[in-house]
Each structure stands twice: as C-alpha cells, then as structure tokens.
Amino acid sequence: MSALTPIASDDDSAGYFSSAVRFNVTAGTRYRIAVAGLGVASGHFNFQWSLTPTTAQAPVITTQPASQTVALGGAATFSVATVPANATVQWYFNGQALAGATNKVLSIASVDGSRVGSYSAQVTSGGESATSVIAALQINNSEGVVEPVLSADKLADVLSLNRPIRLGSSPAPMTASGPKAMSTGVTRGYTGTQIFSTTGALSDPGEPLHCGIQGGASHWFALIAEADGELQVNTDGSSFDTIVAIYLPTGPGYENLQPIGCDNNSGLDGLDSRVNVTVQRLRTYFIVVDGVNGASGTVELNYSLATPTSLRVVSSGAEGTLVRVTGQRNGIFVIEASTNDGPWTSLVTNQSSLGTFQHLDTRSAPGCLYRARTIHP
After folding, report:
1. What's the pLDDT tens digit per position in 344-369?
2. Domain extents for the chain?
3. Which of 67, 107, 121, 167 is most deeply buried (CB count within 10 A of its CB)?
4. Strands 68-70 vs 135-141: parallel, antiparallel or unpaired
5. For a pLDDT cut of 90, what percent of the chain falls above it?
C-alpha cells in the first residue's frame, strides 16, 4: 500500500451517494481503483468505467480548496493550484456560478449567514475541465473564540479514527476498529453557536426519522459535554422549518443511536426548534438538524450547558460571612440571603469566567441562610 501514489478520489459527486472520478492516463500503465463504503457501510456496488482515447490532457487541480470555520464577520479564503498554471477558473457557491469569481483565489471579506455553504471551483484548459472538491464554509462562536469544527451532511462524516469518543454507558473509547469523532466534527464547551447551510443535503439510507417527522436534508454535529448538566439546544434564527434531535451513540451506525431528545416547533418563531436533555461529563452527543419535508437553508444552531450550582460558607466572624459559589464556567450567579426564614434578598450578581467566586457578606447576622442560583443565558 505504501507504494501507491494517489491520483484521484471522490465522495458523492455522481449524485445520491455515488462517486465518480476523471483523470489522465498513460497507455501501458497499471492503475488500481479502490471502492469503499463510507464509515461502516457495505454491500453490492455498481462499477462502471470508460476510456476516451485522446491526446488532450484534462487540467489537474494540485491544491484543493479547504473547508473552514470563521467568526461571524470574519474573512475566508479559498484557493486552487492547477496544471497547467494558466487554466481558467470559475467558482461555484451551493452549485451556482459566482459572477466574476474567476481567479484562483476566492476571498470573502465578511462572512455572515448568507455566505455559509459549499464552495467549489471548475478549472478549464484546452477544452477539458476538472472540478475541485467541495469545501464548506461555516461560522462558529464557542465562548468568544472560534473552534475549527464543522457540521456534516452524513453521520459517518463526523466519525473517523482521529479522536476518541465515549459511547453508551462505558467511559472507555472505542478501539481502532470502531468510530471516533474527528477533529473537524466535534466541539466541547459550555455555550456556542454554529451557523451552516443544509442546501444540497440529503438524508442517508437507514437514517432515523427524527422526532417521527418527515425530513430529508439533515446535517450532523458532535458535542462533548464538559460536565454533568442540562444541555439546551435550539435553532432560533434559522431560515426554515427545522427539526432537532439529540442522540447518544452506543456503537457505529445509525442502528446504534440512542435518542435522548427531539423537537420540531418549540423555538421562538414556532418553526425553529428547542430541546433540553440531561448529559454526562465527557460523553459525546450527536445533534442533527433536519428540515420538515426536506426543507433546507441556513441553520443557526445554539447550544448551552447548564451545570449544578453549589454554595458553601468558607468562614464566619466579626468581619462578616465569606461564601464561595461554584458552578458553570462563564455563568452568571446570584447569591441570596435570608434571615429567620424570611424573604430571600439578592446580595450580589456576578459573572465568573472560571465558574467560581467568593463574596463577603458584611451584613450577616446569626441564623442567616444563603443560597446561589444561576441565570441561564
């Protein structure tokens, strides 16, 4: 295998999960062609090939455009390199030609929801053409920073051998023969937003009917819970009627997805979705967004993990009572006090990036009670 030189590869460009490649060949040279199922898919396949005898050479794309995630309002750049170097270029966005986008470098100065989606380039030389791989552009905000993560059209696209995930009730990762979440398909943290497009997406054969509602244009996203708590997911701000479902994987394939929550129309506008589920620390959860009856468009996927808040008295003396609150990182906490079972009075509201802080109550009295609560974003 180490003696093989890759020439061409593809996934899905022939339509409905079929693949196709086109490449220059030299007479008398032996070429080896591999056909594989994505992820754990297997079965019968139909293989066809044709050779066109010609001296014309199709252009070769030596550098492909790369998928990327940027901040809202950030810049993005896609580029190709070709042989021959003077091949002409036409860029496409979600399958449609972009007017005036004919340079080898495509720059987007300010990315918003209207710019997320799929980008590709067609290069032409001497009447022959070649098409690049499809690169995704998405927006991410994870607690104020950009995580290089992407949603994917198929569950298998967020399963690879790059990073262990925890499946089912066992905290141990799968072995090398099982699925693991790839670095571009999994995020972690307490709050975040992923903006992406489902235009052109399809549902996989064998994919569950999410929430029992007919869909047809699903996208998958993986999240590792930072702590035990309640995960809230919504699609508020999306451009179409969404369905959201959350699954706990217990093994490879759709048949090993354990549904733990789903929703159709509980979002702010009655078409967006909102669901709350209980999650466990360091478990990986799959979030899928689908469109009712195959609807597609721009998704704004928002997630927030609320963890239990605790309070304890550190010390009490003449100077007052010192209490310590521990809870969600970047959480907004309120400390309240009550004397002799009277009404609760707010003492302080504070946001802590570390999820813990102390407060000295100089007005404390014998029998004073304290409690803390979190204000969810």
Report:
1. 889 999 888 778 889 999 987 777 89
2. 60-137, 142-306, 310-375
3. 121
4. parallel
5. 61
Q: What is the CATH number of domain 60-137?
A: 2.60.40.10
pLDDT digits (tens, 9 = 90+) for 306-315: 888 889 999 9
* Token pair recorded at residue 1: 């295998």
Task: Let me know the angle formed at the C-alpha of 280 by 156 and 350, rounded to the nearest 5 degrees.
Answer: 120
Query: CB–CB of 355/327 below 8 Å?
Result: yes
173: DSSP letter: B
With CA atoms as reference, report the closest residue to 197 among 223, 182, 217.
217
- Tell me if 142-306 shares its fold with 310-375: no
Question: Is 142-306 a CATH 2.60.120.380 domain?
Answer: yes
Among 52, 86, 80, 84, smallest CA distance to 64 is for: 80
Residue 161 pLDDT more than 50? Answer: no
Tokens of 71: 């901040």
Q: Are 333 and 350 in contact (CB under 8 A)?
A: yes
Q: Could you read off the pLDDT of 137-151 as tens digits, one per residue?
A: 999 998 888 988 999
Give the Cα separation of 286 and 326 in Å (integer). Answer: 28
**Cα torsion through 42, 44, 46, 49, rounded to 10:** 70
| Residue 186, pLDDT score | 66
Tell me what the mean pLDDT of segment 61-73 comes to.
95
Q: How far apart are CA 195 and CA 201, in angstroms?
A: 15
Pairing of strands 284-291, 242-249: antiparallel
Rounded to 10 degrees, the C-alpha dihedral 162/166/170/173 comes to: 10
**Comparing C-alpha atoms, which of 156, 154, 153, 178 is closest to residue 165?**
178
On the 0-12 / 13-18 / 19+ scale of CB atoms within 10 A, 263 is: buried
Fold of 310-375: Immunoglobulin-like (2.60.40)
Backbone angles phi, psi at 123, to 5 degrees: -115, 145
Confidence at residue 168, expressed as pLDDT on a 0 to 100 scale? 37
Q: Is the dihedral of CA 200, 270, 215, 39 positive or negative?
A: positive
Strand partners, 76: 108
